[in-house]
Amino acid sequence: MATCTVGAVVSAQHFLLKHGFLTSRKICVLSGSRGGKVLSGYSSWRTCSSSAPSCPSEAPAADNCVSSETIQHFDRLVQGGHLRKDFQQRHVIQQLAQLQHTMKTYSNSIYLNSPRSSSQDDSSKPQTGIMPAENKSSEPTEKEASVPPPPKGFYIYGDVGTGKTMLMDLFYSRVENGRKKRVHFNGFMLDIHKRIHRRKQSLPKRRLGKMFTYDPISPVAMEISNETCLLCFDEFQVTDIADAMILKQLFETLFKTGVVVVATSNRPSDDLYKNGLQRDTFLPFIDVLKEYCHSICLDAGIDYRRLDKAEAGKLYYLTGEPGAEAFLDALFEELALRQRSVTGPRVLSVLGRDVTLEKTCGSVADCTFEELCGRALGASDYLEMARLFDTVFIRHVPLLTLSLKDQARRFTTLIDNFYDNKVRVVLLAAVPLERLFIHSGGDDERDRQLLDDLGLSGAAAERLSLFTAEEEIFAFQRTVSRLMEMQTESYWVEGDRSHSKKHSNT
Q: Collapsing DSSP states into helix, strand and coil, what is residue 404?
């Protein structure tokens, strides 16, 4: 082992011993102690009751006759002190319990076999010539009119840390339906674009002089509808114009073929893709979402992730802090001792290309911010990292200003994917977490050039989130909240995959 400071090694050993990771080998002569405090006990999710602000809700009143194991379980968590009374949360779980009961016997086959869905499926065949969309009748047939509407889903929105994910966990884990699927919204849209691309690639080559139009969106939606009848989305947020332009057609087909959607978001549906490019063409999707999903606001004005959580130990270090680098070195080497592997580079194959990480050992990766966010990487790369590694060190995270928008976007995507997959992170950053992102330093040369190319100036340019970075600021608030939770003892313990065959290094 490389030479390390005594204080850093003691801190690393204290941390590892606390969580049962420390081997019996002595790695340095130790004396004294330094480092972060480690609290005892496993911390469950706790929420605090508060006077909730007035919040509009379109959800129906709860049926008092509905008795659900989910509601009983929620009440037991409150009675046992694992949760504190929160009337908003209980209202939401009552609504979800009703839907859970409905989903026990629900199937969307009746909608898949309807005449309208058949017409949607016909669009999977290339059409000769040009078929104007207005030629297709939108009036329901007599047979369609006799089919009852599918159950409405839910769109649950509120600020970060209000308990949306916890309630989704309770609901989804107790839905007794084999055709359910839960996915991060960004991951879902990545899959949609892959399916669209695959369908386009399978088309026969056009012959000279022959024209045909082909719309792959509805057939892709039909594929999804045949696979599942319940779609649960975490972090429903639209920031990509490519996503925004297809959402109405995609979800309209999903809803009409009986797919029930439950989604959580930090934004009200009316604020989705706010200030985005060409938002007028996106607005009809919001109407479709409101037609098929009840909207429920869950926002007590408190980020519960920051409350009542035992710290795992110090996992966030400042670059100028004495011994910080040495602590990370010592912690990495101790974690590496438990791996059946040697330390060295690792090449990840992602969508036919190679991504190299310079320092890894088994399920542990030691990376720099530049390595993870300075390159043109995206959600698919971070998902592959989350699949392979349970612990990732991220060193030299800079102060993220708006002049580093690309890196900041990648960092938020990275943390989102790591959080969803319970990847543990240890960070070395230039500034404290609360000050990691600041709203200044924007309007770089690329932005100015693009403004000129689009012919935009003044108020018109300021309204675009591409230049005001409104979406980046909003997303980073969520990132900071998640990083707070990722430093808790419960998160660290839950993220240990050392005893899981699922995440082997083969």
A: helix
